[in-house]
Amino acid sequence: MGLFGRRSVGPLGPLGAEDRQDPAISGNGRFLASVLEQGGKAMVVLQEQPGGQTVALRHLRGHEPHSSPSLSWNGRYVAALVQQGPERVAILEDRATGKLLRLPLPNGSQPARLSLAPDGQRIAIEVIEGGQSRVQLFDLTGQLEPDLPGGLAVQGGPSVP
Amino acid sequence: MRAPSATTKLGLACAIAASAGLLSGCMGAMPTPMAALNRQLAMAGTNRGPSLSGRWLAVITGRGGRDQVLLLDVARNAPVPVPGLNRGDAKPISVGVDTSGERLALVRQLEGRTELVLYRRSLMSLQPIPMQPAGVPSLVTMRADGKELAVQVSRDGLWQIDLISLP
Predict the structure, then answer these.
(1) Which pLDDT tens digit goes with each residue over A56-109?
(2) Domain span at residue B147?
(3) ipTM field
(4) Residues A111, A116, A121: CA angle, nearest 5 degrees
(5) Within an 8 Å CB–CB cutoff, is residue A86 touching chain B?
(6) What pLDDT, in 10s, does the model give residues B16-47?
(7) Is B161 in Cβ contact with A59 (below 8 Å)?
(8) Chain A closest CA to B99's CA: distance in Å?
(9) How are beta strands B56-63 and B66-73 bridged, if at all?
(10) Superfamily of domain A17-139
């Protein structure tokens, strides 16, 4: 094993042999988000760690393909890129309240990746404009309660079949 | 009977929007762009693959055909030196930073190979992290406390995720 310990993400299918991409871990290590190919759709899957039990998300279904999930410290906030009609949209789900925040971008900007600060107070979004990528930071202070170490524990909720 | 509060009404509107399959903005005003920092990033050239943790933002910048990792102190709106992290003959692919700004994980191409390395800023040291079983890393994210990595790895024709704990 060497210097670095390794562990499995945990099962979804019986053999754990699915294509999984775009991993993101919550700051406390209790949740892992990743993008899974299911039925031809790229979907964000949230799993408790360790063990891999799948946790339901409220707002993402029906807006595939998903990409670039990012989690706050306790996994309260799940940010991701989703599809809304012809547009890629950056959204953020508050698992404690069930609320949804859509993050508007300047006209003509196409989001490509995002990274949510662990406390949920800032987000960095990579956008493509005129064929060039650039990263923009947004301040979420005042819109989201901070998700700090030892903060509000959001339970896993029902598993997804 | 009490009238529903603003919060209840907002929650109801969100629930209706969600049930209708809409992603309408359900929470207040628009996020505020951090203009000074965004200008700083624009001056650095093109940039991609952000990793935001605490007061630190790591991105891969490209200028003059050369890509390198840039670490910014968001609170001071200033770049921070990362001596020994960037090499002229290496191409960074993906970067992750912890909330203390001490540890960065980097996937890079060097001498025809793709490798995962751990950088410790206070020591200015780079340590290779082998893929076991063998695989090709393509994306890394770091847990905020710097204790664990989640790595997207190509292995046996599948994309897999390795969770690697750090000493």
Answers:
(1) 999 888 999 999 999 999 999 999 999 999 999 999 999 999 999 998 887 778
(2) 35-165
(3) 0.91
(4) 120
(5) no
(6) 444 444 454 455 457 889 999 999 999 889 99
(7) no
(8) 8
(9) antiparallel
(10) TolB, C-terminal domain (2.120.10.30)
